[in-house]
Backbone:
């Protein structure tokens, strides 16, 4: 019990519990078929693997978004950056270019987009939501320019591999996520970046007075967030085997912010946890999957999804938990009296 | 004046905030046709008194009579309705609306259910003309200088049938010519029978324009005086809290100082637009240099300039004989500077981080992002300073915002001591701190200097400065007016220079 209490102090604790709960509910409702695993042609198939694979884009976005939110900012352009990245890569591949070059250029485009956001926020001091809205709106136009307004389809098995490939029986996007997250966690662990980031988010003025280059920190995280969006855009476009500038990553920025919020990182900036955000992303993905699996009519899935999200948010809210605890204690006190 | 009821009569006003008594039995009387200065150092209770009068804060006790009738405004709107208007330091109008709209916002004349623009523009023009202000009232407010905006704010305040006009530091952002114009307007309003309350830090202006002075100190009422009868030196004494007679009894400082050899840091004609003008000073190893002066005199601005927070627009700065270009705070830290800013809450602590993280923050910044201090080392550093400075906390994991003000200040001090600086700059390090901790910090400052650190010390409390400083620079109106060494430092001398130096020589 005591150990559980200690564990529950970690930010990642509740997101994991909620995720497992959702899986459990799914398992019960489906009568166990939810947890079935089959190996077909050396590939592992199961609902859980589906959730992980489909959630990979959101996990990447959540990783970048966590850092942006930790500075107290926000980035609503990630969906559009995904579209740009897909458009760039698909145009190159469709034109007969090398897939590796296409990937590199697409990621570079994401970095440029993120650096642009960072410039607007840190140097020109535009409110983050407004600054990134510029690219959110303009980004899809830029993507259209790149593809000449058409949906570019690609015919390249190497490119398809980004989303559909398997290594050791596991889908390739999982390896991308694992690689990125490992690298990021290592960077945070081995450098003082995490401390500087949290300090910047809590009090940028004090941080500046303590010698932290607040502007540079902000610039870095927006750039990184753009890069993550570009990678997510690659997975997306490889999945649909082409670049759809209008629909790639549409409204996904909201899911990314939500994933971080469910993970328990404050939107006001400060303390953050990337693992918690990853589970936040998985929670969103598993809700989507399970709502479909339970046979909820597609017209109302969004409503069901949002109800579940509200419940989770209440569950994560300290004020709500405290008021519930107060009421319970009051009842206990009454009973004892 | 005699026999008439006063315009505003505030008596036995008290106001407490959790843990702080902001006003204790304060009185304030304003007559018709009077310009009344409300003076006091930071934290004296001036702004709280004004907030009580204008309904921003509710008083805990006391009465306010206006024309003999009790009033209790609960919102600024209510205060305005009874005729009390306020113009704040920062213009609080809407810069993106036209001048005329700003004048009439919230009380637009209507014609057939629609706003009557013609009348608004016409009347605004006439109103401003009375203030000798001939501008295009249909242009947006932000097309005009702060001074004009200030005038518009005053015009608006007066036009709302004001009987009392409160000007809260209206001159801080105005040029000399603009200040003169403002004073003309104040005199004009006085002739019309308004009562004007004038809050300022500039003593010259007090003597130029006011009739009466009320001084507050530490939330208590010191006295009300006729401006013409109160010499400056005495006014400063009342503000700072020493009677003039006591001043000569200061204890003699044994810390006479060896201002010899090469200076650690020297400023030559350092100027920063709008905050300091032509400051020259030298700091040596082992010095405790005090910067004395009223708020806004440039005392904080000098250290902000040295630390690279503010930009130096003229002059030069030398570190151990080498020219130094201040390129931000990190460069300053790497040059061996450390700075505890005046506003601990907003510029010092990082509230949601632990004591440990707060302590290593500057050291980590100095080392750079890629040379991370390990958790174990950080813990060691934090524990060392928690013990050395006697920071009262269960552990270094405690969030800094849960500590008391004094302990927070010690953590900030620890943050800077951990960087092992050559020059430590302390701006009001003991404000809002209990007496015991105050003494500890003062002792620490002297100890550090004995170990060879150079210290710049700023405080509004002269007692504290006398106890700690071996040398003292006195500032007035953004300029250095005197430099005192060892034996020359005395409250009398400091106040003499703060109050106006040679022009106001006491016998």
Residues:
């Amino acid at each position: 019990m005591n150990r559980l209490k200690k564990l529950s102090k970690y930010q990642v604790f509740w997101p994991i519990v909620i995720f497992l709960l959702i899986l459990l509910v799914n398992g019960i409702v489906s009568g166990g078929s939810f947890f079935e695993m089959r190996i077909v042609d050396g590939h592992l198939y199961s609902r859980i693997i589906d959730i992980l694979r489909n959630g990979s884009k959101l996990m990447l976005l959540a990783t970048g978004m966590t850092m942006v939110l930790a500075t107290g900012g926000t980035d609503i352009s990630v969906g559009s950056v995904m579209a740009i990245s897909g458009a760039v890569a698909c145009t190159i591949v469709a034109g007969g270019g090398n897939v590796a070059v296409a990937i590199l250029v697409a990621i570079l485009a994401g970095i440029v987009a993120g650096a642009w956001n960072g410039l607007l926020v840190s140097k020109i001091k535009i409110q983050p939501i407004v600054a990134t809205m510029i690219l959110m709106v303009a980004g899809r136009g830029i993507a259209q320019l790149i593809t000449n307004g058409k949906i570019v389809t690609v015919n390249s098995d190497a490119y398809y591999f980004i989303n559909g490939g398997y290594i050791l029986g596991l889908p390739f996007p999982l390896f991308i996520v694992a690689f990125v997250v490992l690298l990021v966690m290592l960077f945070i662990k081995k450098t003082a970046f995490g401390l500087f980031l949290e300090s910047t988010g809590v009090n940028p003025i004090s941080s500046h007075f303590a010698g932290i280059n607040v502007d540079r920190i902000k610039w870095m995280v927006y750039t990184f967030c753009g890069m993550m969006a570009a990678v997510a855009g690659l997975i997306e476009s490889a999945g649909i085997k082409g670049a759809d500038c209008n629909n790639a990553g549409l409204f996904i920025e909201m899911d990314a912010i939500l994933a971080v919020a469910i993970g328990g990182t404050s939107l006001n900036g400060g303390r953050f946890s990337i693992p918690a955000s990853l589970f936040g992303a998985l929670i969103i993905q598993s809700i989507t999957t399970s709502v479909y699996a339970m046979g909820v009519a597609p017209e109302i899935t969004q409503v069901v999804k949002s109800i579940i999200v509200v419940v989770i948010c209440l569950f994560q809210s300290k004020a709500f938990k405290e008021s519930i605890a107060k009421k319970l204690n009051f009842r206990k006190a009454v009973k004892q009296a | 004046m005699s026999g008439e009821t006063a315009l505003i009569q505030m008596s036995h006003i008290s106001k407490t905030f959790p843990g702080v008594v902001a006003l204790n039995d304060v009185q304030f009387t304003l007559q018709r046709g009077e310009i009344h200065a409300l003076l006091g150092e930071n934290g004296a209770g001036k702004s709280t008194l004004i907030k009580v009068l204008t309904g921003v804060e509710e008083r805990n006790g006391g009465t306010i009579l206006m024309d003999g009738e009790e009033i209790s405004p609960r919102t600024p709107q209510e205060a305005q309705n009874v005729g009390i208007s306020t113009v704040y330091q920062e213009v609080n109008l809407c810069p993106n609306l036209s001048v005329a709209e700003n004048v009439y916002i919230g009380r637009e004349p209507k014609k057939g259910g629609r706003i009557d623009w013609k009348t608004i523009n016409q009347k605004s023009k006439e109103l401003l003309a009375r203030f000798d202000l001939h501008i295009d009232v249909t242009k947006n407010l932000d097309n005009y200088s702060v001074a004009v905006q200030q005038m518009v704010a005053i015009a608006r305040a007066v036009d709302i049938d004001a009987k009392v006009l409160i000007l809260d530091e209206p001159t801080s952002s105005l040029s000399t010519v603009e200040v003169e114009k403002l004073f003309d307007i104040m005199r004009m309003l006085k002739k019309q029978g308004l009562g004007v309350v004038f809050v300022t830090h500039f003593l010259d202006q007090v003597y130029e324009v006011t009739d009466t002075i009320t001084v507050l100190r530490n939330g208590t009422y010191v006295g009300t005086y006729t401006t013409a009868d109160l010499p400056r030196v005495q006014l400063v004494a009342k503000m700072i809290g020493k009677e003039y007679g006591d001043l000569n009894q200061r204890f003699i400082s044994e810390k006479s100082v060896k201002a010899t050899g090469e200076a650690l840091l020297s400023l030559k004609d350092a100027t920063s637009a709008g905050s300091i003008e032509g400051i020259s000073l030298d700091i040596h190893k082992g010095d405790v240099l005090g910067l004395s002066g009223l708020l806004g005199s440039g005392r904080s601005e000098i250290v902000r300039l040295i630390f690279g927070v503010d930009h130096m627009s003229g002059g030069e700065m030398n570190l151990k004989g080498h020219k130094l270009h201040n390129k931000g705070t990190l460069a300053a830290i790497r040059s061996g500077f450390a700075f505890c800013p005046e506003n601990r809450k907003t510029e010092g602590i990082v509230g949601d981080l632990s004591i440990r993280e707060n302590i290593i923050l500057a050291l980590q910044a100095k080392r750079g992002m890629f040379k991370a201090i390990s958790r174990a080392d950080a813990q060691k550093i934090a524990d060392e300073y928690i013990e050395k400075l006697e920071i009262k906390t269960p552990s270094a994991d405690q969030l800094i915002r849960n500590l008391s003000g004094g302990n927070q200040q010690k953590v900030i001090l620890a943050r800077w001591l951990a960087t092992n600086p050559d020059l430590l700059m302390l701006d009001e390090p003991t404000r809002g701190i209990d007496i015991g901790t105050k003494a500890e910090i003062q002792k620490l400052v002297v100890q550090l200097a004995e170990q060879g650190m150079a210290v710049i010390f700023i405080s509004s409390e002269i007692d504290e400065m006398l106890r700690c400083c071996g040398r003292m620079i006195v500032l007035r109106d953004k300029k250095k007016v005197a430099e005192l060494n060892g034996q020359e430092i005395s409250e009398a001398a400091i106040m003499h220079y703060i109050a106006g130096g040679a022009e106001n020589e006491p016998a």
Chain B touches chain A at residues 307, 309, 328-330, 332-333, 339, 341, 346-353, 357, 360-362, 364-373, 415 (CB under 8 Å). The CA atoms of residues 473 and 483 of chain B lie 4 Å apart. The first strand of chain B starts at residue 8 and ends at 17. Residues 244-257 of chain B have pLDDT under 50 and may be disordered.
